[in-house]
Amino acid sequence: METIYIRIEKKGRGGKTVTVMDGFTRRQQELEDLASQMKKACGAGGTVRDGGIEIQGDRKMALADFLKKQGFAIKGI
Q: Is it the case that residue 1 has pLDDT exceeding 90?
């Protein structure tokens, strides 16, 4: 079971809030597919960067629920 760390960032993003998730041990294509599912679930934009996933906005709780349903362990909530 992968442990995913979720945090909120604003610094260096022009004042915009971004939910950042780190700790994935999957390949790039798997991360992109997972990010696509997350974006659809939240109705928000996002990207895969440096082995993590970034989703626009403060979506910490919604993404934590989504990841728990996918079988991930969550830290940082």
A: no
Q: Which residues of 32-66 are buried (b: 16+ CB within 10 A; e: fewer)?
A: eebbeebbeebebebebeeebbbbbbebbebbbeb
Phi/psi at 61 (5° precision): -70, -45
Q: Tell me if 55 sits within 8 A of 46, measured CB to CB.
A: yes
* CA gap 23, 39 in Å, rounded: 18
Residue 74 φ then ψ, to 5°? -120, 135
pLDDT, tens digit, for every residue of 3-55?
A: 999 999 998 888 899 999 999 998 999 999 999 999 999 999 999 999 999 99
